[in-house]
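Sample intake sheet
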Amino acid sequence: MLMAVLLCVLALVVDHYLGEPRKAHPLVAFGWLAGRLERLVNPSARTDSNAQGQIGRGALAVLVLVLPPTLLALWVSHWLVGPVLWVVELIVLYFALGRRSLRDHARAVVLPLQAGELDVARDALARMVSRDVAALDENGISRAATESVLENGSDAVVASLFWFLLAGIPGVILHRLVNTLDAMWGYRNPRFRGFGRFVAKLDDALAYWPARLTALAYTVSGKIRPALGCWRTQAAQWDSPNAGPVMASGAGALKLGLGGPTPYHGQWQDRPRLGVWAVNGPSVSTDSALRALRLLDRALMIILALAFGGAALWHWSMVGA
């Protein structure tokens, strides 16, 4: 267990210095394969008139894409031992983590935003979120980037560490592939409402405890009282059972205002308000996304310290026995 915690730290260090590979990232290849399979078994002409068929095809597609890599990881974990296994685990965990990517994306939005270059900031934001960035002003750009950092801090960083510590590389691979498919298929439109339902529910289940661990770590890492209050009173209003606690606690910990009016697919949606809103609007600034990133870093240190303490206690209890 102590070795697992050390591998988490090493993977974060490698990710910090190397970032995502510019070429041949396994998740890029997986996404391409998933896109090809989806177009084959779920042509865009089909709609909810055959909802049950869509759900079945979506579930089958998830199993075809996710089961083989997960079973291969189980085999590797069973047959490899010692330093060879540790190297494989380090590589897999490095590919699964997205901390450096979050930093790079956030900086690409914040720096031009602070320089008043809104068009450049919008272009960078479009690589982080799915909303209509052309309709966003300075405030909306900052809110969107901050929300993305807080939510992906759970999905792309904490959850990978959580599942590695709990289930090794099979757990990491299962969660990361399901989360990738949810990002591709988890839309509530005619094409994916049925097809993506299975993977959306599976992703919710896998993210349940990592999201709450993240929310707790955000709370302890920031303004505790506002974070707890926002988590308790606002999280349930959010559509996602996992993003709600994460973003409500994060917004409260930073004393920011998130959520609110947001453009999607040509229409403005008035989402629930999270965190602390000022009288005339949300309390955000141009550097809010970077503040969220620093909150994530403090949360990671707390999580890793707790994991190390738990692993050390377990090790000493085994030695004493």
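Comment: The mean pLDDT is 91. The chain has one domain: 2-320.
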